[in-house]
Specification:
The protein is mainly α and 90 residues long. It is built from 4 helices and no strands.
Length: 90
């Protein structure tokens, strides 16, 4: 009950951030949207590859990693991919 609600309180700013990102995407032009979509696809694919690889490494004794790092990894790869993707469109 109350304990679950308290633990989930930090999700509220995440929902607000998600809503802001959706609004931002609605306000950008097609080229910018395409570049972000490509960055997101790269980030999702690389994160899936890295996460699956690390899952198998956990089976041979590597330490377990919190799932929150999956989100962080997507965001970092998206950020790193952005200048490379943008350069292709210049």
């Amino acid at each position: 009950g109350v304990e679950v609600a308290v633990v989930l309180l930090p999700v509220i700013p995440l929902v607000l951030a998600f809503a802001a990102i959706v609004r931002c995407f609605q306000g950008i032009d097609e080229l910018e949207r395409q570049m972000h979509l490509e960055c997101l696809a790269l980030a999702a694919g690389l994160t899936a590859l890295l996460s699956a690889s690390y899952y198998f490494l956990e089976g041979v004794g590597f330490p377990r990693v919190s799932s929150i790092w999956t989100f962080v990894l997507v965001m970092v790869i998206w950020l790193i991919a952005r200048p490379f993707v943008a350069r292709r469109y210049q």
